[in-house]
């Protein structure tokens, strides 16, 4: 008989056990996105990026044909990683770029979290490639987008069938926090949520303002 114990699943992410790979959150790539409102996409990408920086997650930011076609990164990502290196590629599949793969090997973590544009091309390619080479992969689906709902959903299904684990941007941040008693990141998590987490963020603001409530007694 199984016996319960107060230990988290090994499949839950921690700040130090993975690398976040942000792919092609660029203006030209966003123009054709129809699977998610572009404003929501930008907000989710910002939440994801700020959470990664705040929790000290190793992160790779990559673009495709930035100067010649696809344009700059979302302002939210530029602002969050102002001094970070951006790996510009010609390959649609970032996994076929030696610089990107070299950086993944340099960081040396077997667990990878992906988000970017478009889901069916620039996310499917590296996710399937990483899985085939023995990496454990997660996809932040609401920080991805595609030219139609069909394209996005079929891409997510294909990656899940291959073994990828889907999640959302808010789920990602709360999974890194996971315990409101972790006071060193409590303010970070609730601050990002107040700014970017929609109704949940407004709820945090309301509870604090109206009756001084805080999660976990903080």
TrEMBL record:
<keyword id="KW-0378">Hydrolase</keyword>
<dbReference type="InterPro" id="IPR036380">
    <property type="entry name" value="Isochorismatase-like_sf"/>
</dbReference>
<dbReference type="InterPro" id="IPR053152">
    <property type="entry name" value="Hydrolase_YcaC-like"/>
</dbReference>
<dbReference type="Pfam" id="PF00857">
    <property type="entry name" value="Isochorismatase"/>
</dbReference>
<dbReference type="GO" id="GO:0016787">
    <property type="term" value="F:hydrolase activity"/>
</dbReference>
<dbReference type="InterPro" id="IPR000868">
    <property type="entry name" value="Isochorismatase-like_dom"/>
</dbReference>
<protein>
    <submittedName>
        <fullName>Hydrolase</fullName>
    </submittedName>
</protein>
<feature type="domain" description="Isochorismatase-like">
    <location>
        <begin position="19"/>
        <end position="169"/>
    </location>
</feature>
